[in-house]
Amino acid sequence: MAERTQEFLDFGAGVLALVSLTSTVLWGLAATDRRLLGSAHRLLAQGVHRGLAVAGLGFLALHIWVKVAEDRTSPTAATVPFTDNTQPFLIGLGTLAGYLFVAVAVTGAARSAFTGVGRSGLWRTLHMAAYPAWGAALVHGLHAGRPAAGWVTAAYALCLIGVALALALRIRTRQREARGGRP
């Protein structure tokens, strides 16, 4: 049992982090939808978005801790991007993604600090770092460790499809709004 738990933690924590953070991105996109969701539902979606972000960051911390504890990477590589001795680019992408996700979480938690005139655009710009972080995490997850099992590749593909569709829908809605049409 202990061996199976260790194996799960070794390879599953990173997958759970990515799936949780993907769900965070999807719920964040849903929380902005004014076409289908009323204000009460948007508030609920924001709550789910925040909860999933905390869970994703927890799984991410567990993933990093396990990889360092099992000596699969060094504490330096886990904290300084692109310094891993064996896979500097792929591990560095993961490290960089982790920092970006933390920055996004901090800006999300401190959103009220950005409520001044003209500052909401700054918040949006900082919060949108979730997209490159998510992309870097996806590449890291698929290529940094052992060859992915079929179910992992399928889960990552579903994550990619889900975020691409939700983002395309959001962009389309914003374009309609900019042209003066209803959302």
List the helices and strands and how they pair.
Blueprint: H1 2-31, H2 39-69, H3 75-79, H4 88-109, H5 120-127, H6 130-143, H7 150-178
Helix pairs in contact: 1-2, 1-6, 1-7, 2-4, 4-6
Which blocks of ≥5 consecutive residues have pLDDT under 50? none
C-alpha termini separation? 52 Å
Rounded mean pLDDT score: 88
Helix content: over 70%
β-strand amount: under 5%
Largest sheet: none
- For the secondary structure, the number of strands is 0
Shape: globular
Radius of gyration, in Å, reads 18 Å
Notes on the structure:
The chain has 183 residues and is mostly helical. Helix content is 76%, strand content 0%. It is built from seven helices and no strands. It has helices at residues 2-31, 39-69, 75-79, 88-109, 120-127, 130-143, 150-178. Helix 1 (2-31) runs antiparallel to helix 2, helix 1 runs parallel beside helix 7 (150-178) and helix 4 (88-109) runs antiparallel to helix 6. The termini are far apart. The model has no long low-confidence stretch (mean pLDDT 88).
